[in-house]
Specification:
Number of strands: 22
Largest sheet: 6 strands, mixed
Shape: globular
Structural class: alpha/beta
Helix content: 25-40%
Radius of gyration: 24 Å
Distance between the termini: 45 Å
Length: about 500
């Protein structure tokens, strides 16, 4: 049983990004310590260092005064450290019991899996969490929320001395959250608990200490009952946007409304209505689980919408699949660039021309001349840095991969371009170039929808900002009236019980 976890001057840099800058604080057994900050503040990076996923560049972390250095998650687990990330790490084709006891499967005297004991032990934990599924259920058949609970039970089963939760309630129902909180209350006297969340109601209900981070730096640590919601929010914002945004060549000729969504309903999308004008950059701000990505995927036909209507140039669109959206003039650069955006083992040429294949067929075969023309035009137009259009896109930098996806969609002349986290995982120099490209596209009359979890770029790039919280729109601002404090307050509105 560990009593004290201490971080001393932890620093971690990635190419072009200083993710953590001399972060120091202490967490103790008997207290739940909240880590709060905007997306990109460094919270998850710090947890990955503690868990051995990343190695820090300088500084130390100590457990009970003893310096530690975990080379991988296995070492961390063996030392009693469990980190539950936002991204689920369950194996869907195995049962709940097999996932929970993955590193410690009970066997019989013949060294065969003792499924009876395995299921009995797992069911005991499931019942303790008051969950309505069996140990023998396949994880793939569970809802996303229940899969998250399996992840939590897997960590709980190890009886760690340190446990860290990274946005654990983002996909949980109220009943499941209550169950988790009961477990946390019981465990806090047995272990050190770190709790990452944007939800103010949760922080004030379940935590004892608050550690505030901003831009990879430690800002302050305070007892939860000694600090106000407003003080936390103010400590999380106020960053200088820098000259990069002031120098952008913006479109000053925004036109008429060309796209409109009315009362849109889908999974985690509740009665969402908004509009986009020609040449306008409309930003969508919100925290984890706000419903921004789900809204755009429903519009694009990637996910099923259960209600509402969408219009382009005043005409209602019937979009059931992405190909319908593309044919009507909509384009989507997805949030997960590597999984959903690029064909990693194909060339830059192939990644750009893929949406034009039908139009460049000749006698049933791809017209290579036309394909090369589309690809070369895209590379030149967006200044994609590649030694050749035949270079595998997976071997390019993140920024050049993103620009290749832009080039793909520009080849079909979209009316509406939806950008979901277009600068995610991209270095500072490439971000600046992406901002310039977005402004250039707006000046061409394309309506831009820009989702970002980085408030400074939302404020710096967008003409108008729509704020979402828990599947709903809670308000919007023009660029000149928006501040980080105002946007973040609306982004937490439902969580604070103040939705408007």
């Amino acid at each position: 049983m560990s009593d004290i976890l201490e971080f001393r001057g932890i620093t971690k840099a990635f190419p072009g990004v200083l993710a953590l800058d001399r972060v120091s604080f202490t967490a103790r057994r008997g207290e739940v310590t909240a880590l709060v900050g905007e997306n990109g503040a460094g919270k998850s990076t710090l947890l990955k260092i503690l868990n051995g996923d990343y190695q820090h560049d300088s500084g130390d972390y100590l457990i009970d005064g003893n310096e530690k250095l975990f080379r991988d998650p296995r070492e961390a687990i063996q030392a009693g450290v469990s980190v539950i990330y936002q991204e689920r790490q369950v194996i869907p084709y195995l049962t709940v019991a097999e996932n929970i006891f993955m590193e410690d499967i009970p066997v019989d005297k013949f060294a065969l899996v003792n499924f009876g004991e395995l299921n009995r032990k797992a069911q005991g934990i499931i019942d303790e969490f008051k969950l309505p599924f069996s140990a023998a259920a396949k994880v793939r058949d569970l809802s996303v929320a229940f899969q998250q609970m399996v992840e939590i039970m897997k960590a709980y089963r190890r009886h760690p001395s340190i446990i860290a939760f990274d946005e654990p309630t983002a996909s949980l129902s109220d009943a499941e959250i209550e169950s988790l909180f009961e477990i946390i209350k019981r465990l806090k006297n047995e272990m050190i608990i770190l709790y990452v969340s944007h939800r103010m109601k949760e922080i004030f209900r379940i935590t004892d200490q608050v550690v505030i981070m901003k831009d990879g730096r430690f800002i302050k640590q305070a007892a939860t009952n000694s600090i106000s919601e407003d003080e936390i929010i103010r400590s999380m914002v106020g960053r200088d946007l820098g000259d990069i945004f002031h120098s952008l060549d913006r479109n000053d000729k925004v036109g008429e409304v060309i796209f409109r969504a009315e009362n849109l309903e889908a999974d985690n999308v509740k009665n969402v209505s908004f509009e986009v004008r020609a040449g306008e950059i409309v930003g969508f701000a919100g925290l984890v689980g706000a419903g921004r990505t789900e809204t755009m995927r429903a519009i694009f036909g990637a996910d099923k919408k259960t209600g509402g209507r969408v219009f382009l140039d005043g005409t209602e669109l019937d979009i059931k699949f992405p190909e319908d959206a593309i044919a009507k003039g909509l384009a989507l650069c997805p949030e997960d660039r590597k999984e959903q955006g690029i064909f990693a083992i194909r060339a830059v040429k192939d990644n750009i021309s893929v949406v034009k294949l039908r139009s460049i067929l000749k006698y049933g075969f791809i017209n290579k001349t036309a394909e090369l023309e589309v690809a070369r035009d895209g590379v030149a137009r967006l200044n994609i840095r590649t030694p050749s259009i035949d270079k595998l896109i997976g071997e390019l930098s993140g920024g050049n991969q993103q620009k290749t996806i832009f080039a793909r969609w520009l080849a079909v002349n979209p009316r509406i371009l939806i950008l979901d986290e277009p600068t995610k995982g991209i270095d500072v120099g490439s971000k600046s170039e992406i901002y310039r490209i977005i402004c250039d596209l707006a000046k061409q009359g394309i309506g831009i929808v820009f989702i970002s979890s980085e408030l400074p770029e939302i404020l710096g790039v967008c003409d108008r900002i729509v704020v979402m919280c828990q599947g709903r729109i809670t308000g919007e601002f023009k660029r000149e009236e928006a501040t980080e404090h105002k946007v973040l307050t609306l982004a937490m509105a439902d969580m604070l019980g103040d939705a408007k």
